[in-house]
Write a structure and sequence with these properties.
single chain; 227 residues
Length: 227
């Protein structure tokens, strides 16, 4: 069993996350913590394999908690679960070596997908003497089945941001709306140019479609919809 510690200052949110984790075969929640200090204490006591970590804690920023865990010699993995969409937070999480970054709110299937991918990565036996190809594979995270556009991201695009863009498109589609690159950028918290790159990437894989909206003057606006 993969032992999980849930860290979130909202009691009800932590309870929901705990319920989600316990629905996934092979995972068990060994504790919950509402603060960074308590998370550090419970990691030392319980030795979880994985910590589901909110970034907005009452006593510390989540990435500072990760740094303190590493300074204390703790080797547990960390999956960030947060509402923080800022690029600096995502880059900081990547530098800290977290295994995933999931934006709130999310559905059970979103977390299940990441947990199953994490379990598959843990189960991969690296052996002793590795070839260069095996080393390269170990440093490349596997993407879940069915996530073709994310798995085949070109250089310079991140899976976390691609998933945020996808979520924005899906949510707009629920109300039968389309998004422009500018609107998508505002929702996700990235530049318009970056949003355009992700949107066009999804279009190229047939996961989104683009239509043109003509105004009275100027070039037509490109509008995107998830398929």
């Amino acid at each position: 069993m993969i032992r999980v510690l849930v860290v979130d200052d909202d009691f009800m949110v932590a309870r929901i996350h705990r319920g989600f984790v316990e629905r996934v075969t092979g995972f068990e929640v060994v504790g919950t913590a509402p603060t960074g200090d308590e998370a550090l204490t419970l990691v030392a006591e319980l030795k979880p394999d994985l910590v589901l970590l909110d970034l907005y804690l009452p006593d510390a920023f989540g990435l500072d908690v990760v740094a303190r865990l590493r300074a204390a010699g703790e080797t547990c993995d960390v999956l960030v679960i947060t509402a923080a969409k800022e690029a600096d937070a995502v880059r900081g999480a990547l530098r800290q070596g977290v295994v995933g970054y999931l934006l709130k709110p999310f559905a059970f299937a979103d977390l299940e997908q990441r947990l199953l991918t994490y379990a598959a990565e843990r189960a991969r036996d690296l052996g002793d003497d590795l070839t260069q190809a095996e080393i390269d594979a170990a440093f490349t995270s596997s993407q879940p089945v069915g996530r073709g556009p994310v798995a085949a991201l070109p250089k310079g695009l991140s899976a976390e941001t691609a998933e945020a863009v996808e979520r924005a498109l899906r949510e707009s589609g629920e109300s039968r709306e389309t998004l422009s690159a500018t609107e998508c950028a505002e929702v996700v918290g990235i530049s318009r140019v970056s949003a355009r790159r992700y949107l066009e990437h999804f279009v190229s894989f047939g996961r989104a479609e683009v239509t043109l909206r003509y105004g009275s003057t100027g070039r037509p606006e490109r509008r995107y919809r998830w398929l």
